[in-house]
Each structure stands twice: as structure tokens, then as C-alpha cells.
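Long-time lurker, first post. I've been practising inverse folding by hand and with some scripts of my own, and I keep getting stuck on stretches where the C-alpha cells seem ambiguous. Below is the full C-alpha cell string for one chain I'm working on. Before anyone asks, I'm not after the true native sequence, just a reasonable design that respects the backbone. If someone could post their per-position residues I'd love to compare against what I wrote down in my notebook.
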């Protein structure tokens, strides 16, 4: 009989070995996770863009002030921090589950039978302890710890997104300021051109139709300026809300003073596992699901608990005894599920399915991260190439405007050619700001895609 008990206990413990194992990251293939170009570096020995602290990434003092204010007051980040507090409290509760639960349980009673009044009382401390033998409490603790890591990663993801959003909105305002400056210069130039045309009309070189067309284009630029002013106010309001303040004017630098890294380093794709908060969050979600499956497994094994109490009472075997006597009791119980095993099996299947879902989500999150890096790299390289060609285009258009204006004064060209050249130059100048803003945006997006802004 003794040998049978030993064999039974041994087999139970061996079958339960799996519920004690810690979570281990599944094998993931990060080879060629994102596409790189010749203009970027992908080396194992160089730190990538995402490892740069945001204060070093964004050196504009006005932008730094806005980011710091956003980190202090942004509503989404504040909520993420509260979730962190909740997760830490859950971990604390999981740790306390290993200790006996002690309570003070005084009680008293008065009974009256046939005129005889009896008073009894007991002043006792009670304690109960669930013996952590088959991994239920251990896996609950590990799941709570993974929950803390998951919420930390969520908070970091919110922070990364917040920094990128503030930087994008800030540089959008700087870009709109530059476009406004171009518009104002154009309005001044075209206004002078109209006065010149009126003088040329007096000597018969042009006519009223040419002046009317010029004035119509002049009004169109003025309308564009009004639209720009409205857009600037909307972006200022949006940025104000992002950093937790009432809508107001945003202090900012000049377009010519924009300073972001010119050399882009992405590091190795494996870095995304360590740097990307959303990837870490997905992995910790997988770890939580793994431990939830272990908890479901542990439910098949016995639950052992010990209960006890000690204190003083005047009730001893039905007699009223004074002074009070010391009371102590200890009891142990073992519960083994029998008829509920069907439900336990169903819970285990549910937990396993959740674990598979979490695994699929983790792999998909990693693929999405690689795609975001690839897209940001492609946008950066395209914007860099466009910058070179746009400079050539503007140089040629400036020459074209000057040349057609000279020809017009000599009656060797129509004013339509002058208008066409002026409009072409304005569009190219505005496109130049768009191209450079696209480059700025790609750097910010790459910074976020590589997990920047966590530190």
C-alpha cells in the first residue's frame, strides 16, 4: 500500500512538471524583417535611431518644452500610468496569496432557557493558508508579473506615439509658417507685377485682359493665404489638446533652423524585439496567456488548505467556565475535483486557444513592426531623392520667370507665359517644403517604428 501511494504521488508530481515551467519566448525569424536601402545602415555594432533619447533626437528647445509638457499632462499617458498602478497592485495581491490569511474573529452569544441565561464568548485569531503545491498560485504570480510588464510596454507605446505625434504636429506648424512666408512673398511680388502691367498698358504693350488675369491669380494666392492661416490655428489647437492645455498659440522655431539626424541607422531587425513597446506588449500578453493555461492545468490537481484558530473562550464543553480558557484548533483539507473535470477540460481548451491567439498576435505585431520600418525607410529615401531634383526644378523655374518677364517687357512674349512661369515657380516652392516635410516625417516615423522615445 505504501509503495502504491509513493508511485501515485510521484506520477502526479511528474505530470505536473509542466505547470512549473517559466514562459520562454518562441522562436521568431527576424531575418530580412524589414527592407533596407544603400542610404541606410544596418549593422550589429551601431546603435539604431530608436535608441537615441528623445532629448537628443529633438534638439529644438521649443519642441522639447512641448514634449515635456505632453509627458506630464497628456490624458492617454496618464491613463496608461494608472493602468500600471493597477497591474502592480495585482502583482502585490498575487504575492500576498502565498501567505496565510489572518483575521480577528471575536464573537459572543446570549441564550435563555427556562429562565437560565447563558453568556458565551470567544476572542480568537483565525488563519487560513492555501498550500502552493501544484502551481496555481505560482502561475498566478507569474501572470501578474507579466501583466506589469505588459502594462509597462503599453505605457511606453503610448509615450512613443505621443512624442512622435507632438513632433509631427510641431514641424507641421513650422512647415505651414514657411508656406505662409512663401505666400506673402508671392503676394508682394505679384502685386508689384500688376502695377508694372498697368504701366505697360498705358504704353500699349499689354491690355485689360492680361491685367484681369493677373489680378485673378493675385486673389487666388490671397485666398490660399487665408486657408493657410486657418489650418495653422487648427493644428495649434490640436497640439494644445495633445499636451493637455487649452487651445492657444504655440511658440516655435523657424524652417531654416530645423535640425534632425542626417545619417540614419536602423540597427539589426532583432532590435525590434527589445526596443518596440508594442512588440514587448504582445509578447507579455503571450506570457500571460501561457500562465493562464498553466493555471487551468493546475485546477486538475488537489487543492490543499490549512485552517486554524487560537484565542480565549469561556465555553468549554457546554459549561460556562470563568476565567476564560485558551482555545486552539488546526484543520487541514484536501479537495480533488471529480465530477467537475468536464468543465475544467473546457476551461483548459479555452486557455490553450487564447494562448494560440496571443502567439499569432505576437508574430503579426512583429511583422507589422518590420513593415513600418520598411515604409519609413522608403519614404526617407524617396524624399531625399526628390530633394535633389526639386532644387534643380526651382533653379530652372526662377530663371524661366525672370526670362519671360524680360521678354514680355520687350513684347517678345505674352503675359500668359509670364503667369504660367510664376505659377509653376510658386507650386515648386510649395512642393519643396512638402518634400522636406516628408523627409522630416519619415525620420520621425522611423524613430517611432524603431521604438524611440522610451528613454
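-- Answer (accepted) --
I ran through it position by position. Result:
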Amino acid at each position: 500500500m505504501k509503495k502504491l501511494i509513493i508511485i501515485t504521488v510521484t506520477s502526479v508530481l511528474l505530470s505536473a512538471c509542466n505547470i512549473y515551467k517559466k514562459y520562454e519566448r518562441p522562436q521568431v525569424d527576424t531575418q530580412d524583417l524589414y527592407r533596407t536601402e544603400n542610404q541606410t545602415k544596418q549593422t550589429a555594432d551601431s546603435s539604431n535611431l530608436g535608441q537615441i533619447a528623445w532629448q537628443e533626437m529633438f534638439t529644438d528647445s521649443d519642441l522639447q518644452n512641448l514634449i515635456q509638457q505632453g509627458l506630464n499632462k497628456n490624458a492617454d499617458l496618464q491613463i496608461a500610468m494608472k493602468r500600471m498602478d493597477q497591474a502592480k497592485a495585482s502583482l502585490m495581491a498575487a504575492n500576498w496569496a502565498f501567505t496565510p490569511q489572518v483575521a480577528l474573529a471575536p464573537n459572543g452569544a446570549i441564550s435563555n432557557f427556562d429562565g437560565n441565561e447563558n453568556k458565551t464568548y470567544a476572542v480568537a485569531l483565525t488563519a487560513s493558508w492555501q498550500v502552493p503545491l501544484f502551481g496555481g498560485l505560482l502561475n498566478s504570480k507569474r501572470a501578474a508579473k507579466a501583466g506589469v510588464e505588459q502594462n509597462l510596454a503599453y505605457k511606453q507605446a503610448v509615450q512613443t506615439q505621443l512624442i512622435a505625434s507632438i513632433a509631427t504636429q510641431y514641424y507641421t506648424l513650422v512647415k505651414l509658417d514657411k508656406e505662409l512666408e512663401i505666400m506673402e512673398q508671392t503676394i508682394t511680388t505679384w502685386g508689384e507685377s500688376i502695377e508694372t502691367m498697368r504701366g505697360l498698358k498705358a504704353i500699349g504693350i499689354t491690355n485689360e485682359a492680361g491685367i484681369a488675369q493677373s489680378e485673378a491669380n493675385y486673389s487666388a494666392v490671397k485666398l490660399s493665404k487665408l486657408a493657410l492661416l486657418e489650418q495653422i490655428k487648427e493644428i495649434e489647437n490640436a497640439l494644445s489638446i495633445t499636451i493637455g492645455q487649452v487651445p492657444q498659440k504655440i511658440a516655435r522655431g523657424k524652417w531654416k533652423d530645423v535640425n534632425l539626424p542626417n545619417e540614419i541607422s536602423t540597427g539589426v531587425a532583432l532590435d525590434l524585439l527589445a526596443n518596440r513597446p508594442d512588440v514587448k506588449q504582445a509578447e507579455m500578453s503571450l506570457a500571460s496567456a501561457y500562465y493562464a493555461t498553466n493555471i487551468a492545468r493546475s485546477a486538475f490537481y488537489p487543492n490543499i488548505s490549512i485552517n486554524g484558530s487560537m484565542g480565549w473562550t469561556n465555553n468549554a464543553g457546554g459549561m460556562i467556565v470563568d476565567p476564560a480558557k485558551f482555545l486552539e484548533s488546526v484543520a487541514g483539507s484536501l479537495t480533488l475535483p471529480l465530477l467537475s473535470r468536464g468543465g475544467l477540460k473546457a476551461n483548459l481548451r479555452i486557455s490553450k486557444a487564447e494562448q494560440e491567439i496571443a502567439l499569432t498576435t505576437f508574430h503579426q505585431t512583429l511583422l507589422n513592426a518590420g513593415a513600418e520600418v520598411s515604409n519609413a525607410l522608403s519614404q526617407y529615401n524617396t524624399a531625399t531623392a526628390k530633394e535633389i531634383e526639386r532644387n534643380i526644378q526651382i533653379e530652372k523655374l526662377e530663371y524661366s520667370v525672370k526670362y519671360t518677364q524680360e521678354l514680355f517687357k520687350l513684347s517678345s512674349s505674352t503675359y500668359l507665359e509670364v503667369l504660367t512661369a510664376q505659377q509653376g515657380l510658386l507650386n515648386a516652392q510649395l512642393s519643396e517644403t512638402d518634400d522636406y516635410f516628408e523627409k522630416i516625417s519619415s525620420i520621425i516615423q522611423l524613430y517611432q517604428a524603431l521604438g524611440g522615445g522610451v528613454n
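A couple of notes from the structure itself: The chain has a mean pLDDT of 82. The beta strands are 101-104, 107-113, 116-130, 303-316, 319-335. Happy to go over any region you disagree with.
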